[in-house]
Structures are given as structure tokens and as C-alpha cells.
Protein 1
Amino acid sequence: MSTGTQARRKLVAGNWKMNGDMAALAELDAIAAAAALHPHVDVAICPPFTLIAPAAARTALPIGAQDCHARASGAHTGCVSAAMLVEAGARLAIVGHSERRADQHESDAEVRAKAEAVMAAGMIAILCVGETEAERDAGRAEDVVAAQLAGSVPPGAKADALVIAYEPVWAIGTGRTPTPGDVAAMHAGIRTRLRALLGPEADGVRILYGGSVKPANAAELLGLPDVDGALVGGASLKAADFVPIIAAA
Ligand SMILES: O=C[C@H](O)COP(=O)(O)O
């Protein structure tokens, strides 16, 4: 998988969430075939933990995890370490998804520790940020995202190991998306915040948009300034939906 440092290659990553079984891995074949037709786009799939090893064995597509424990080992029932993910074949891992921030009460500090573990293991961290609808309605969206970045982006992170995914919580799985202007403004704001945190390295960090990305809206969203790709949930489960998004990138 290419790094983001040179002209920020687009990245279209699928997050299967808690969906998929062995039979679903057949979708990877069609996705891989489409990805080969678009070599200027990086494509990755993040299936459930149980499918990482068989997915990585089946395809050359980069396979990722949806979470990672911050510690290397120990008494953490139900958790999986970064080294375990690498051994299973993962090359990237999502951290700080809003569903985990909400359901598992993950703090910015925990997300940062997870991102550091992912990077230390040689994987790419896709670090998610995004405001709730109430926060946007209150005019606090940019401040909320800025605070998440300040609290969860590891200091000294390198552009080839860090991807930011801006996912407004209210747009996830709802069929709703921010206006193109709001997406562009938020991505520009994220870039500015990253420069303050990481210096010039920030210019190589890819910033993905996520939240109800579909074939019908992908071209518009992916064509916006500072939108370096997409993190796709529901529309990544079927190649018939995901492939047009890859093509749009
Ligand atoms: O990680 C993916 C996002 O949560 C977006 O999900 P969605 O495309 O189903 O809205």
C-alpha cells in the first residue's frame, strides 16, 4: 500500500463493521479486480477480526482491523493487540470510530494510545473524528473536531502511518451528508489543525470523508478540496456498491 506523502493518493477504505462471514469474502474478489483497474487509488477493506486472516490470505488488497488494543499483551479479555493484527495479515487499523467512542466510551487519550500502538506495529492508523448532530446544531462542530485531533493524534506521527477520517456522527448510516461546503470547510480546518500538531508532515496526511458515502454522491464528495478519499460503511459490503465509489475516486 502506498504512503500518503507524495501528492496524497486517494484512499477508499471499507469498514464492514459487525457484518460479514466467510461467504462474504467472495466480494473481495470483485473489489480487488476493480481496484486493479484504478491503480491511482488505494483500496482497503476492514472486516471483523475473525475475517482478517482469511481475507488477507485470499486477496492482495490491504486488509485492516476496526480496532486495536493499546497494550501489547496481558489481561484484557476480548481484546486484540496490534502485533496480533499484523500476524493475522492486517496492514492498517481504524481507531476512534464514533461507534466505539460512544459504545465503549473511548476517550481521546485511549484513541491516541491505540493509534500509537498501530503505528509502532508498522500499520497505518485510520483515526476517526466527527461531531454529533447536537454539536453541529450548536455551532461547535469545528471546535469538537479540533479537540478530538488535539487529544488523539500522536505527536510526531508520520504521514505514511496516519490517516484521518472525518465522520460526522449524524451522517453515519443515515443517508444524510453535510453540504459539500461544510465538508470542504471541515477538511480545510482539519488540515490547519494537523499543521499545528505535526508541522509540515501534516501536508502528507490523508483526510477521508465518511458518512453515507454511496455511488450516487461519491464523485461530488471525493472531488472536494482536501478530501483524500472515503471511509465507507454500508456501501462497502457489496462490490456492486463499493466498486463505483472506487471508480469515482
Ligand atoms: O466507518 C464508516 C462509517 O461509519 C460510515 O458508515 P456508512 O457509510 O454506513 O454511513
Protein 2
Amino acid sequence: MTNYKINEFFETIQGEGQYTGTASIFIRLQGCPVGCSWCDTKHTWEVENDLQIPIQQVFAKTVETPQWASLSANEIVEHIKLQGYRSKHVVITGGEPAMYNLIEMCDALHAHGFSTQIETSGTFEIKVPAKTWVTVSPKINMAGGYKVLASSMARANEIKHPIARQSHVEELEELLNTAPVSEGTLIYLQPISQKIPATKLAIETCMEKNWRLSIQVHKYIGIA
Ligand SMILES: C[S@@+](CC[C@H](N)C(=O)[O-])C[C@H]1O[C@@H](n2cnc3c(N)ncnc32)[C@H](O)[C@@H]1O
Ligand SMILES: Nc1nc2[nH]cc(C(=O)O)c2c(=O)[nH]1
Ligand code: SF4
Ligand SMILES: [Mg+2]
């Protein structure tokens, strides 16, 4: 049985990528070694054993903390019911969720009528059922030294690449040449941290290449 270390568990509107606008339950798993300098969830990076808390305290969080609770797949489903969430779509993020085998969690959610999606950097082998929507946000030359796997690029239903500079666009193009995506995979550019030059670059590049724009809608409207 897999135990999942959960940093956050909440219901909101998916603010990124193809599912933008979809009412969703978010499960944010603890742990990520990739080390993106601009990461907006740095509190999830380290897994410290003495920071384990009961799941009720995860639901009660009002600020971001590195504390986490451990739940099995069946307990995750139970807690979704107990919370009275009404969303039918579950987004598994982190941290880096692909560090975990996600098959049990996704199977349990599917068995209870939920659709699933993962947000991943693609640096670990992706272990999810065939019907899970996979968002790969490739990270190139980050501090942790991890590389995007060709198998992650091939599995992706959408690529969502964070950019701030022209060199980030070129890095994505090079990656797409060496590690191709499957037919029909959507390509999104996401401006890093809502910066105006990054947003302008993303808009212009999407128009030029027929790619899609993903802005972090939740940050503009002030929701989680
Ligand atoms: C926090 S990450 C967690 C999941 C996984 N580790 C990953 O990187 O995909 C979720 C999404 O937020 C994006 N992201 C993180 N920090 C960001 C920032 N400052 N600006 C724009 N996107 C950001 C990531 O690229 C990824 O698409
Ligand atoms: N509303 C909302 N949408 C999101 N899409 C991806 C997120 C993430 O942190 O993975 C995220 C998030 O943190 N909040
Ligand atoms: S891979 Fe994701 S969680 Fe990890 S540092 Fe980068 S953006 Fe943050
Ligand atoms: Mg986020």
C-alpha cells in the first residue's frame, strides 16, 4: 500500500493549462529535488520526518508550511467525502508528485467517479493510469540537476513551459526536437510570476508558433 505525504488538500478552480476554469480538488504532495529558482511552492521541497502532522491540521492550514500528513489512497477518497467537496476533477501536484507511484491514488479516485490530472516536471518516471491527464512542465538546467525524461514528454497530454526570457523558448524548442511529444499534445507557455515582459514574450511566441497561453488565473483573481 502506498502512503502519500500531503502538504495541502483544498478545493478551488484550476488556474493553469487546458483545464483552466474547472472546479478541482487539489492534492499537493510533499518533496521535490528539482530546485527551480522561481518555484512558487518552495515549502514543499524538503520532507522532514519531524514535520508530520494529522490530516485535520493539513485541512486547517491558513498559511503555507512544510508540514505534511500521510494518507493511503482509500483515506484520500474518504477525506474528500468527509470534506463535502463537490468538484469531480482532482489535480495531483506538489512538490513533485511523480516521485510517488500514483496508480493506487488515481485508481481509487477513478473508481469513485473522479477524473484525475497530474502536474509534473517530467524528471521522474510517471506512474499513473492511462486515463489520467498528464501536464508536463519541463525544467531545463535547474539547480537540482534533474533532466526531463523522453518518456515523460511522450506521455504528456499537455506541455506547460514556464518562461521569462527568449532563451527559455529556445530551450523548449531544443527539447521538443530531442524528446518529441505525441500527436495532439497541447503546448502552453506560462509566464513566470505574472511579470509583464514574460507575459508579453509568451503572447508573442504563442501567436508566432500557434502554441497556447497559460496564465496563472488564480493569482490574478486572488484564490488558492
Ligand atoms: C509548483 S509546480 C508543482 C508540480 C511539479 N513539480 C511541476 O513543476 O510541474 C506546479 C506548476 O507551477 C509552475 N510554476 C511554479 N512556479 C511558478 C512561477 N513562479 N511562475 C509560473 N509558473 C510556476 C510549474 O512550472 C508547474 O507547471
Ligand atoms: N488554482 C490553482 N491552479 C493551479 N494549477 C496548478 C497549480 C499548482 O500549484 O500545481 C495550481 C494552484 O496552486 N492553484
Ligand atoms: S519542479 Fe515544480 S515543485 Fe519542484 S522546484 Fe520546480 S516548480 Fe517547484
Ligand atoms: Mg500553484
